[in-house]
Amino acid sequence: MAVTFRTATVAGAGLAGLGAAVNLVRAGLTVRVADAAAHAGGRCRSYHDPKLGLTIDNGNHLVLAGNGAVARFRVAVGADTPLAGPDHAEFAFADLRDGARWTIGLNDGPLPWWVLARHRRVPGTTAADYARLAGLLTGRADDTVGDRIRPAGPVWDKLFEPVLLAVLNTPPAQGSARLTMAVLRESLLRGGMASRPRVAEPSLAAAFIDPALDWLASHHAPVALGRRLRGLTFDDDRVTALDWGAGPEPVAADEAVILAVPPWVARELVPDLKAPDTFHAIVNGHFAHVPPAGTPPMLGLLGGTAEWLFAFPDRISVTVSAADALVDGDREDLARRFWDDIQRAHGFSAPLPRWQIVKEKRATFSATPAQDTLRPPAATRWHNLFLAGDWTQTGLPATIEGALRSGETAARLASGGRKR
Questions:
Q1: Which residue range is the domain that position 174 belongs to?
Q2: Where are the beta strands (DSSP E) in 226-379?
Q3: 39-58: per-residue pLDDT in tens?
Q4: Do 270 and 376 lie in a common domain?
């Protein structure tokens, strides 16, 4: 039955939900948005931490210059806070075990001549070592990365493994080759200009969340916080009521419902929903210490506890992906281990400053082939119910780009592709 939706309710105000809401409003629908948390943004939220005395992000989230959904979202909401990053695709690394340092320097165009330049690639490697990565291009849909290429050698150890660990938030050899290739096609295979790293500075809120909230409010779609969706009522092929805690509220015949909630919440709300059920942690550390002059904005670390260091004007931050072995660790012990890595990596000595450790036990779904097959599409068997979130079938791992694309897809389905 074809229905033209004129109104929509979006449950969830993370980037997927905000992206869906913005696109629905632009399509001419009347939209209301609600989120159970006290802050919008989901895992991309920012907040003032009283212990640090600074505004920090929940995690250090990286996007790439070629991320189309990121660009479309920021243009739509008028986000004018620039994303920080280099003019060219450069990735600095340091190995704490032997003190080695190197910078991967991709050339701007899609033809990867950078692998021919010794100073642009991993030390001690040849162009032929990179050619072996072509093995990722062919194989079965359910292959892991380790099924297609040998997860060993200097290119793997000093470039591919640390980068893929951050991208997939999953042990890279176990990760889905399909998802890995999707990322590579949109970054490395498009050249350095598309692969330039971009970090929200001063915060994710300034770059993404606050402009979206302001835009929605100015278009009569303010976000209601502290409002948890507790149940849905289904009748035949549609959702007929939503329960926000005070009993069922009817869903109008011309109203679409978009669930932009975590997969474990969606499974509780939607009967027989197939969704990812295995997750990996991310641990972040934030230190109230001004980085030394000349500190690279982003540094990949090998041989320590920390994996990536981010230098902000007022702090140094650490990210560890697939951090299941660390997430239950003592917070002060983690802070001291991270701080030791920071000092060794950046070549200074200082007492442990004010710090904060932020843990996300279920940060993202495990990006394995098996979990990828559990990701549902945006459309459901109920004609007025749609799903959004980086855990839905976006074709990408759990990323900001994937979350925003999922919002676009859900909104397009609910609006019938209308534009205004």
A1: 90-195
A2: 231-235, 238-243, 248-250, 255-259, 279-287, 298-302, 308-312, 315-320, 355-365
A3: 999 999 999 999 999 999 98
A4: yes
